[in-house]
């Protein structure tokens, strides 16, 4: 064990000595400087080890040989050890990162840095409130000087504003300390807490608490007293910003944490309100921010708000501190390492505006790290923030603090909005051929180190949180990690490895699942395998493609095996983020991916809120099965949780992301998104229905609402599909509509309805996978997605044509292929259920589907070929092969529907009394019957007869060339004028005009614009004038007083 | 096994019957329309002459496999549709293959031939074909809406989707016909029927009197013959369907002949009186009045439970 | 005008808050808490007559070390910020007018006494009002006087630096001696407490105060010199 | 002593007033210094005991009954620290102003609004 006192001793001894040692040269100075920092780090790591591995007792050091309260004491326990380790690692790494900057500034800069580190350490260790003040001043003064060190106008201005704020804060702090001293007769924090002095509500003591916390709230950069902080983050050298944002803010937060037990009820609430307001507002304002370091500043400030809110809530809603210690630690360390890492990257890239960050694309390592840190900040699993946020929201739910849930979730969404926009620009922004970032090894090293720490910490926190089925839940991550090892090898090897690990995972899951879960995981894993095979048609794949694909598929499969809410939510998020990262690989998919991520996250946050409501009625509920006990809150919970699923199935109103994302994603990926990913939402809805049945919202049954939602989705999406010129966009809308039918089926809550849904789930996977893959092959060969730029490809790509033909027949529900089975089940179910009007609309939608089906196949394959496509080759075998597997399935289930329907019927049987019976191969419902086998034979038989007949009759028929037609008494010669494909359904569009207004898109655009405008109005308070910032600080004082004096 | 063979034999007989019936109905109707116009008109056996002419044409060209397969699809669709509908109630040999599926199957099988022919016509590369298909499809979507609503109302009324059961429920006099028991559904269904028969005023996609615009533009010779054969079978099948749904079905062949002819005459009559609609006009027309009636029909049953 | 109004509103708010907090404040009637302990046992524990000194140097010695650090930081910060960049080296400012003779004479006459007075203050810190900071500030005022009298006066950096570093480092070492030889870091009792009330009493307090005095004096002098500009 | 308290509070308010109304940065710093002084007065007032004397246990104060005679030494020790820290901050702030003035030749705080929003 190292005596904590040696930290200040070493820091000061070295700092005082360095000016003399300067004459021995820079190298000596640097060695000593790093030795000192290294000593700090080593000492704190030793403590960390002692407390967590050896359960050592808390270290208490009394100075001057007297016990407190006579003397000042330092304390290092497990919490302090964690903080110190983080801070000292940051300092060491930060100093390493800043080395050239320090070298330029000279020796004194190292002194400043060393003392800055000392200040932070002191803030963490001291247990004396006045000593805390002294260390706070050391930290602040050192940071003022570090900020102004480069003597640029901006950093000087920012530093000056900071100093004004800091001076005000220290005046308030000192005021508070002296009043507290008078009241308690001691300066020792533990003594003060023990004396219970602050429980007294005399004005003097309340005033003391007021001054104390006001000061720390200012130091925590709470709204509106934080203009200075933003300037500092923007102007300072990013290496310094990293130290301030992570290090000193963290240390100050810990100081606040330390003295927070002094606060009374009113302060718990004030902290919660101020913190969550700051979190929301700074993220809101950041929406319009384009300057990277300032953007990060807003994010930092927001994170401080989040921490303060969590602290406040922790005391406000329950006194069980241990749970909150976990939450605070998770949120804190998450922010700590991620933000430092991002600032460092900002320092490497040296691009001020987010639009210029596309330069990052040339450097995959940096891009990867940026993505990692941003994901951490967003609270994606497995980062610590995820576990923290989950626990926090659950706790808030348990204690009925839903305004907190709402604010924190809203703020998180806003944060995602601007961080992901930034990442999107880095990933897919327009490239400029200017200076590329050229990171030094040193810089990459420290940034990478922090990424590693972030991941490790996340794993550690997750390990504490995931108590049951740990391995199942983290399996996807492990698989992805394994596949990362194969990056850089040939595509074949990567695909092979992916198939192997997925198969392995399938075998792992197999014994865990039965019934519906088995069915869905079969689609997720089996479908995934098939789609992975199809990816081979592109000979080159950028790094990360296969790990992400496998992550996506396997996390979806885990959804079916999840027993706990947390495990489910975790894998839901994994699926969302991996699919986001996949979508954004499309060449022009920046905006689409952004929208996708935003809607998905919004949905996921709503799900989180739903689970949190469940905590209210069933505290401590961890299992999904606990949803069954929702009772009177069933309606709310169902509505909230279903949001996530509705987004994923792109139900009307939540569908805005889908057409763009499907269209712009890479072609084979689109097939996976449509065929497989959308089914995750269906699985979710089924799960909800299984556990919650059909809850009521007041007197309205929610499954009726869901049913109508599905119906309208099916109708409108189909309607939009027919007016698309882009083949993928057409199929995208089609996909939305088809999934709408499945939603209808689920919503019916009947045996037949679910059969319809399950049948259609598989069928949609088959034909939409088929269609998207076929179209991918076409795009691969022709290089365009616009259907009117193609034509007559049937002669060049007959196999693909056949695929598409089978696909559209199956899609449109024309007998005898599988599509009809879905339609039959659906209408039987609808009429049985009494949903007549819905059945009518669904029928309308399904006839409209013919229009786009025909358009798709006509514009691409029929008509007259374009001159430049006369030599187009058939799609590669590697993409045809999976298509023909799908076709085989379609034929099998068309011929023998019973093979699928009977097991499905058995799967649904536990939930509803079966209303579908069998007479041989004839399925008999309460209304009608259908024999798919006879139908198939009949059709084939008649078809064969007619075919033979025609063969005989048209013996002498001659094939003619494309233009061999008579068109308005002349022979046309150009396909552009002859191939009728562009604006194919214009008359229909004219007829349907009233239904085609994009009201929902306008609605969401309005929401987006109003939110952003709100941000830009609010940010006017940061007018850049240091004096105004001082006024805002005084304003915060008055606000806080009003908030707290009432009690 | 004997059962199957017997069924096939019955089916073929039934098919021959309906084919000739269809040919004659078309011929007779043309004659009647001509008389209404004050012309003499073609003889009632003209369709047979047309068919023979098409088959015996010496020049025969095609544009590719799909073009070639289009008529096959079309005729398969027509025959198949007929095979799924029980033509005469109680008659064993005119039950066809209606045991393989109910009303839903019948409705969806209507699309089989349409889709196939649309694919074939598309390959001809003639812009008029594509245009005709576009118009036909657009128009069909609209006219199917009231039809679907009518069927739903009927299914709700009888609690079954089996055509035989629906007919059975209507036996026992005109008072039991759907026409009487469910007039709204019948009205919606019959208005939709106007569109489904693709007769004037809803025949823009065929535009029979003017330049050859429509799916069949490029079809010739034996291909056209197949289409013509289909026309008679397909039309008859639809007539029988409507008869079964709304007018009590038929218990004997003469009853069937009379009823279907009257139903057909209804659309001929409307066609003689009204001029042709443009696509958007017909789409909107179907989505207004007939759909409203259909919705009303359905809502009544929704409310009653 | 708007600004003034807002300012006025803010100030009245603050005034209200202060009035609310301090409204029924009244002075303490008698010592309590930790102060009581200091007063009753301070002299016996540490042998310092001046209890404030006892508190500053020993009981709350870590604060004082921190205080020295703050000053040191400020001095370093000022030095870093006002460091001459290469391109600024040439731009020296010419002082237009030398100080008057009265000032120069006065300065030369007074400064030794001021320094001596400063030393007196920190040496007697444990006996009478005063101490290292006060003494150091007084010494620095002598330097200020010199600067006023001789605007182009240059301090000897090396000497200053060495004194500063030495005193600071020794202060830390003395603290460590307390840790190793007596009760804890900055414990003054590793030296004999001596006779109560004499200059060589109270253990290491006079030593520490001397070091602080030297350090503060040199640091403040350094700040002054840096701020003086490039004469 | 109540008077000292009131004076201290008044000085603090005056300091704050100056801080938010004076545009000149040096005046702002002076205002902060005034506010700090006010606070220091308050601190001293807090430590005062009616009729007490300085906490120096020389011949004037009896060591045994000192508790009844002297004022609280702790706030005095704290004020000492506060003063020194104030000096340090002020020195650094003035340095910033020197540098800022060199950049823009203005002491008006509203001229330094390069960063906002």
TrEMBL record, chain D:
Keywords: Cell membrane, Membrane, Transmembrane, Transmembrane helix. Its main location: membrane. It holds the Pfam family Oxidored_q2. InterPro entries: CPA3_antiporter_subunitC (IPR050601), NUOK/Mnh_C1-like (IPR039428). Gene3D superfamilies: 1.10.287.3510. It is found in: Cell membrane. It is a multi-pass membrane protein. Coiled coil: none annotated. One of its GO terms (cellular component) is plasma membrane. The keyword Hydrolase does not apply. The chain crosses the membrane at residues 6-22, 29-49, 77-98. Belongs to the CPA3 antiporters (TC 2.A.63) subunit C family. This is Cation:proton antiporter. It comes from Caldithrix abyssi.
């Amino acid at each position: 064990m190292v005596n904590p006192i040696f930290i200040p001793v070493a820091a000061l001894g070295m700092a005082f000595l360095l000016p003399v040692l300067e004459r021995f040269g820079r190298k000596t100075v640097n060695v000593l400087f790093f030795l000192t920092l290294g000593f700090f780090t080593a000492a704190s790591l030793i403590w960390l080890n002692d407390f967590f591995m050896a359960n050592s007792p808390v270290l208490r050091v009394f100075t001057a040989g007297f016990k407190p309260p006579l003397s000042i004491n330092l304390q290092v326990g497990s919490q302090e050890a964690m903080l110190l380790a983080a801070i000292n690692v940051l300092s060491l790494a930060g100093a390493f990162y800043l080395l050239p900057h320090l070298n330029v500034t000279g020796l004194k800069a190292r002194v400043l840095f060393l003392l800055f580190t000392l200040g932070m350490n002191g803030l963490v260790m001291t247990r004396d409130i006045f000593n805390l003040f002294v260390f706070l001043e050391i930290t602040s003064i050192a940071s003022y000087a570090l900020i102004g060190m480069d003597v640029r106008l901006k950093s000087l201005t920012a530093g000056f504003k900071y100093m004004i704020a800091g001076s005000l804060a220290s005046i308030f702090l000192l005021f508070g300390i002296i009043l507290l001293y008078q009241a308690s007769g001691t300066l020792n924090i533990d003594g003060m807490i023990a004396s219970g002095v602050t429980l007294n509500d005399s004005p003097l003591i309340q005033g003391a608490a007021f001054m104390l916390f006001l000061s720390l709230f200012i130091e925590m950069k709470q709204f509106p007293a934080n203009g200075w902080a933003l300037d500092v983050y923007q102007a300072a050298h990013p290496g310094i910003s990293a130290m301030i944002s992570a290090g000193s803010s963290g240390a100050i937060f810990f100081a606040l944490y330390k003295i927070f037990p002094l606060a009374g009820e009113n302060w718990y609430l004030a902290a919660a309100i101020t913190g969550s307001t700051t979190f929301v507002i700074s993220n809101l304002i950041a929406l319009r921010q384009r300057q990277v370091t300032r953007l990060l500043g807003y994010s930092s400030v927001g994170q401080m708000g989040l921490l303060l809110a969590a602290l406040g809530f922790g005391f406000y809603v329950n006194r069980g501190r241990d749970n909150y210690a976990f939450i605070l630690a998770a949120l804190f360390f998450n922010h700590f390492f991620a933000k430092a890492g991002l600032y460092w990257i900002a320092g490497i890239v040296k691009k001020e505006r987010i639009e210029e960050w596309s330069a990052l694309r040339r450097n995959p390592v940096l891009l990867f790290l940026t993505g990692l840190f941003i994901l951490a900040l967003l609270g994606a699993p497995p980062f610590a923030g995820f576990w923290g946020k989950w626990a926090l929201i659950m706790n808030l739910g348990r204690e009925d603090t839903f305004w907190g849930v709402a604010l924190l979730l809203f703020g998180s969404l806003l944060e995602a909005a601007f961080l992901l926009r930034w990442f999107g620009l880095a990933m897919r922004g327009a490239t400029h051929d200017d200076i590329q970032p050229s990171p030094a090894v040193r810089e990459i090293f420290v940034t990478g180190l922090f990424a590693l720490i972030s991941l490790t910490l996340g794993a550690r926190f997750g390990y504490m949180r995931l108590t049951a089925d740990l391995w199942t839940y983290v399996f996807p991550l492990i698989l992805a990690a394994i596949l990362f090892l194969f990056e850089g090898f040939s595509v074949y090897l990567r695909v092979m490895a992916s198939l192997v690990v997925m198969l392995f995972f399938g075998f792992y899951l197999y014994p865990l699942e039965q019934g519906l879960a088995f069915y869905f995981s079969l689609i997720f894993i089996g479908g995934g395998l098939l789609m992975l095979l199809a990816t081979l048609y592109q000979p080159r794949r950028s790094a990360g493609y296969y790990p992400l694909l496998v992550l996506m598929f396997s996390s979806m499969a885990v959804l079916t095996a999840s027993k706990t809410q947390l495990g489910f939510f975790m894998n839901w998020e994994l699926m969302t983020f991996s699919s986001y990262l996949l979508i954004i690989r499309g060449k022009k998919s920046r905006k689409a991916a952004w929208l996708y991520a935003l809607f998905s996250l919004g949905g996921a946050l709503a799900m989180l809120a739903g689970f949190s409501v469940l905590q209210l009625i069933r505290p401590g509920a961890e299992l999904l099965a606990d949803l069954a006990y929702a009772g009177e809150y069933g309606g709310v919970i169902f509505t909230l949780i279903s949001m996530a699923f509705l987004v994923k199935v792109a139900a009307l109103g939540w569908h805005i992301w889908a057409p763009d994302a499907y269209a712009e994603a890479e072609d084979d990926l689109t097939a996976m998104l449509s065929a497989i990913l959308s089914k995750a939402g269906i699985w979710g809805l089924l799960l909800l229905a299984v556990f919650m049945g059909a809850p009521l919202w007041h007197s309205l049954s929610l499954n009726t609402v869901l049913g109508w939602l599905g119906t309208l989705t099916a109708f409108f999406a189909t309607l939009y599909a027919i007016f698309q010129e882009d083949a993928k966009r057409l199929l995208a809308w089609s996909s939305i509509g088809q999934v709408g039918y499945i939603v209808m089926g689920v919503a019916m809550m009947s045996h037949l309805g679910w059969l319809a849904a399950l049948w259609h789930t598989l069928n949609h996977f088959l034909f939409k996978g088929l269609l998207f893959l076929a179209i991918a092959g076409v795009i691969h060969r022709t290089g365009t997605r616009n259907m009117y730029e193609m034509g007559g490809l049937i002669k060049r790509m007959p196999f693909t044509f056949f695929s598409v033909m089978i696909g559209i027949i199956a899609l449109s529900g024309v007998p005898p292929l599988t599509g009809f089975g879905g339609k039959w089940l659906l209408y039987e179910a609808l009429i049985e259920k009494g949903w007549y009007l819905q059945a009518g609309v669904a029928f309308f939608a399904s006839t409209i589907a013919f229009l786009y089906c025909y358009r798709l196949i006509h514009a691409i394959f029929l008509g007259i070929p374009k001159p430049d496509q006369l030599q187009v080759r058939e799609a590669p075998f590697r993409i045809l092969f999976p298509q023909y597997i799908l076709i085989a399935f379609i034929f099998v289930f068309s011929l023998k529907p019973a093979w699928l329907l009977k097991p499905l019927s058995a799967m649904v049987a536990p939930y509803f009394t079966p209303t579908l019976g069998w007479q041989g191969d004839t399925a008999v419902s309460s209304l009608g019957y259908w024999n798919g086998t006879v139908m198939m034979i009949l059709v084939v038989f008649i078809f064969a007869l007619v075919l033979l007949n025609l063969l005989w009759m048209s013996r002498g028929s001659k094939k003619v060339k494309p233009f061999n037609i008579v068109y308005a008494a002349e022979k046309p010669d150009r396909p552009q004028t002859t191939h009728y494909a562009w604006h194919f359904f214009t008359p229909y569009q004219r007829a349907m005009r009233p239904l085609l207004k994009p009201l929902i898109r306008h609605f969401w655009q309005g929401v987006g614009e109003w939110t952003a405008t709100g941000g830009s109005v609010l940010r006017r308070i940061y007018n850049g004038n240091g004096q105004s910032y001082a006024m805002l600080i005084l304003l915060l004082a008055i606000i806080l007083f009003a908030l707290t004096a009432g009690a | 096994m004997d059962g199957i063979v017997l069924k096939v034999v019955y089916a073929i007989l039934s098919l021959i019957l309906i084919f000739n019936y269809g040919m004659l109905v078309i011929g007779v109707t043309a004659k009647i329309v001509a008389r209404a116009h004050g012309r003499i008109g073609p003889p009632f056996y003209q369709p047979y002459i047309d068919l023979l002419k098409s088959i015996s044409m010496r020049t025969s060209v095609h544009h590719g496999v799909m073009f070639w397969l289009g008529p096959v699809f079309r005729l398969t669709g027509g025959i198949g549709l007929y095979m799924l509908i029980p033509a005469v109630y109680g008659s064993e040999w005119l039950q066809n293959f209606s045991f393989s599926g109910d009303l839903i199957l019948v409705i969806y099988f209507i699309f089989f031939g349409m889709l196939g022919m649309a694919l074939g016509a598309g390959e001809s590369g003639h812009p008029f074909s594509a245009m005709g298909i576009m118009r036909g499809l657009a128009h069909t979507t609209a006219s199917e809406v009231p039809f679907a609503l009518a069927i739903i109302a009927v299914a709700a009324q009888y609690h079954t989707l089996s055509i035989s059961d629906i007919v059975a429920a209507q036996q026992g006099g005109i008072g039991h016909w759907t026409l009487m028991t469910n007039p709204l559904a019948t009205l919606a269904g019959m208005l939709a029927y106007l569109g489904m028969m693709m007769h004037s005023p809803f025949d823009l996609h065929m535009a029979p009197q003017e330049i050859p615009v429509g799916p069949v533009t490029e079809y010739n010779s034996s291909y056209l013959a197949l289409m013509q054969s289909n026309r008679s079978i397909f039309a008859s099948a639809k007539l029988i369907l409507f008869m079964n749904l709304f007018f009590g079905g038929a218990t004997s062949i003469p009853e069937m002949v009379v009823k279907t002819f009257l139903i057909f005459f209804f659309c001929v009559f409307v066609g003689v009186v009204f001029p042709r609609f443009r696509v958007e006009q017909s789409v909107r027309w179907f989505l207004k009045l007939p759909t409203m009636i259909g919705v009303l029909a359905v809502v009544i049953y929704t409310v009653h439970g | 005008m708007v600004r003034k109004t807002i300012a006025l509103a803010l100030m009245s708010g603050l005034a209200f808050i202060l009035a609310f907090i301090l409204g029924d404040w009244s002075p303490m009637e008698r010592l309590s808490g930790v102060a009581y302990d200091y007063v009753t046992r301070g002299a016996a524990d540490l042998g310092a007559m001046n209890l404030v000194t006892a508190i500053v140097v020993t009981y709350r010695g870590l604060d004082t070390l921190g205080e020295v650090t703050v000053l040191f930081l400020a001095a370093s910060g000022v030095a870093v910020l006002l460091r001459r960049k290469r391109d600024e080296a040439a731009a020296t400012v010419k002082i237009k007018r030398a100080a008057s003779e009265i000032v120069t004479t006065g300065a030369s006459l007074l400064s030794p006494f001021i320094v001596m007075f400063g030393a007196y203050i920190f040496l007697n810190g444990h006996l009478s009002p005063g101490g290292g900071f006060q003494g150091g500030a007084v010494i620095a005022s002598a330097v200020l006087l010199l600067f006023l009298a001789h605007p182009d006066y240059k301090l000897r950096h090396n000497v200053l630096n060495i004194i500063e570093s030495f005193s600071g480092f020794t202060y830390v070492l003395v603290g460590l001696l307390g840790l190793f030889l007596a009760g804890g870091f900055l414990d003054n009792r590793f030296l004999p407490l001596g006779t109560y009330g004499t200059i060589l009493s109270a253990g290491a307090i006079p030593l520490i105060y001397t070091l602080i005095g030297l350090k503060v004096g040199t640091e403040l002098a350094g700040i002054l010199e840096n701020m003086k500009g490039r004469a | 002593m109540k008077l000292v308290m009131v004076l201290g509070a008044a000085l603090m308010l005056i300091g704050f007033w100056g801080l938010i109304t004076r545009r000149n940065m040096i005046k702002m710093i002076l205002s902060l210094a005034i506010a700090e002084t006010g606070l220091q007065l308050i601190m001293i007032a807090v430590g005062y005991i009616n009729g007490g004397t300085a906490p120096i246990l020389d011949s004037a104060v009896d060591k045994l009954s000192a508790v009844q005679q002297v004022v609280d030494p702790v706030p005095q020790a704290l004020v000492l620290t506060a003063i020194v820290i104030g000096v340090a901050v002020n020195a650094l702030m003035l340095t910033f102003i020197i540098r800022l003035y060199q950049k823009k030749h203005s002491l008006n705080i509203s001229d330094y609004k390069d960063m906002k929003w």
